[in-house]
Design brief:
This protein has 352 residues and is mainly alpha-helical. It has one domain. Helices cover 67% and strands 2% of the residues. It contains twelve helices and two strands; from the N terminus they run ααααββαααααααα. It has a two-stranded antiparallel ribbon with strand order 1-2. A hairpin with a 3-residue loop joins strand 1 and strand 2. Helix 2 crosses helix 8, helix 3 packs antiparallel against helix 4 and helix 4 packs across helix 5. The longest helix has 29 residues. The two termini are 26 Å apart. The model has no long low-confidence stretch (mean pLDDT 93).
Length: 352
Amino acid sequence: MRLILVAGALALFFSLFGTPALIRTLARRGYGQIIRDDGPSTHQTKRGTPTMGGIIIIFGSLFSYLIAHLITRSSVTVSAVLILGLVVALGLVGFIDDYMKVSRQNSRGISGKQKIAGQVIFAALFGYLGIHFPDPDGLTPISHHLSTVRDTSISLAVVLVIIWVAFMVTATSNGVNLTDGLDGLATGASVMTFLAFVLIGVWEFGQSCAIATSGNCYNVRDPLDLAVLAAAFAGSCTGFLWWNASPAKIFMGDTGSLALGGALAGMATSLRVELLLIPLGGLFVIITLSVALQVLYFKLTGGKRLFKMAPLQHHFELLGWGEVTIVLRFWIIAGLSVALGLGLFYTQWVAG
């Protein structure tokens, strides 16, 4: 528990006090947000706000995790290192996209196909490496079994594991990216989900088969250290949210949203709660579905729109809702989704 508190506190400190320095650096270089002309007109006031703030989230989480282990003289784990590698890789994809936007001074960065390709390649590499590096008990960071709230009896071949992990990571990173359209919306929702992973990691450690004697124990590699990493991301996002809340002084950009999505999917995969990510990240799922439904309805009806604008948060903006009102109400949905996910996780343990 000490390690969790140290990592979370350090991440909060780095992000809270490091973000203003990043804001000044980005502003001096002219790395400001480019606003699409077809979006809500109220967003034009945000033009020029420093972007690529995901840099501080990534490095705040990374450094706090490493320093916390240095302070407590504990070893880092393969599971956490693999997730951090995935986060940095996806952050790099997002950074390239953000940099191309600000350097060209338009809202087009790398193409959608290039972005997806980068996500899939790094996610597949994460999935491949994750089924290696067994510990003395034979547990690897990623299981061959499909998991819901724990591993099921459904075993997947190596190729299917890699494809499934690549799909999960790509879908989640794009889901967070689509949610990151209003000040603080994606950041606040991410904090809640990371805190849920802290609780899940601690619980799985306390009920691990190496400690507990019950038949309802968990066979998960490094659950406690994954809780430490989740605390680092929660602290880093919380510190960033101070500056990202409306009116935002900085945006995370694709640098942050793709990285956070990768972190969430990596946590769910490594903690053996893959399908539980659907309720835990319920807000991200709802917003992603709104885009999919908009596209499908548009094609089926020959050009009609189901929503005034997708993603969903912009539909409510065009209905006249204030930005802060939308963010707060969507945070409530995110909180209820997390509560549902944790309830399902605990209920399964009780029933088991």
